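Dear V.,

Thank you for sending over the compound details. I've combined the ligand you provided, zinc ion, with the protein sequence from our construct and run the structure prediction for the complex. I'm sharing the raw inputs here so there's no ambiguity about protonation or stereochemistry in the SMILES, which I know was a concern on your side last time.
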Amino acid sequence: MSTLDAVQLTRDLIAIPSASQTSNLEVSDYLTKVLEDTGFEVERLEYVDQNDILKVSLIAKKGEGKGGLGFFSHSDTVPGAKDAWSPFEPLIKEGKLLGRGSCDMKGPLAATIAAAANLSSSDLEKPVYIVIAADEEVGFGGAKQITKHSETFKRDGWPDMGVIAEPTELEPVHAHKGGYFIDVTAHGEAAHTSTEKGRSANFKIAPFLADMAALKETFMTDAQFQDDEFNPPTNGFNMTLNDYGCANNVTAAKSTATLSVRSMPQAHTKRAVQLIRDKAEAFGLELATRGYDAFHTSPDSKIICLSLEATGATKSVAVPYGTEALVYQEHLPLVILGPGSIAQAHTIGEYIELNQLERAVAIYQKMIKNYCQN
Ligand SMILES: [Zn+2]
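Below is the predicted structure of the protein with zinc ion bound, written out as structure tokens.
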């Protein structure tokens, strides 16, 4: 048995920089020690990312048997932006803890560990898991590795249900938007414009782009592409362009437009993606689609009821931002529930309110007590 203070643990974690652009090895080693010291069995998963940087994810379990309750976090952050403030020197001021990751999400992560730290394995009828992924901010690499390769989950199965501890100001969230990206590429031939020998990929893709501008109008006005459970109810249809830095006096060899839509359960996302693909195919353009369906848990499900009971909230809500629930949701029912405000995530001067952190520990403890203890 040990006691562990969520505020102190958050401070310790902030002081170990772990922006996704660097390795999270040091913070993961620290977390491994904290978890082992508080009675967790820890599995480590590692990979080397596309920039040859080592990334570590942790799957920690306390208690015997199968099922139970999982708490899901990530140990990476967005970059510190050192020139603007002191991101890695945690500071307590006016009831707030400042520092990079305080809110997204070293604070919430610390609260999940603190909630389970004082329990001994024999207190638990069902196990508690703390899952900490690498690279949440840059493509969910850690979470994807966990779903494919965790020996713990292969051996014991997934927990019965889980909490994604991302900041929601401790309001239970049962749904958020997902997202699809469609890369549409035109090929031309590069040549100096003095020769008239080139073919511009940009001219080739232009008519398709005009159609996309018209489609934006459709998505903004046609109710079948919207979902009133969300605010805004629209799919955030966006387009970015890349001609790979082609010089002004050269015809572009390649031009890519990336279209994106945010998926929502009722917004006919597949149909929206198909409309984009049909247009691209009609112009003979190259196509690649990637993405995720929306996150959705039934508001009547056990995990939502458990979180309503623990928070005292009367109903769960839907939010417009995304989390790793997109990756995990096919394995277990989830709620998004964590301390701090998403408005603080990724900001200069990022902070979490101390009373949110403390309340989170109490709420997570209640959920563990109500589901995993006798
Ligand atoms: Zn986050």
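A first observation: The longest strand covers residues 54-62.

Warm regards,
I. M.
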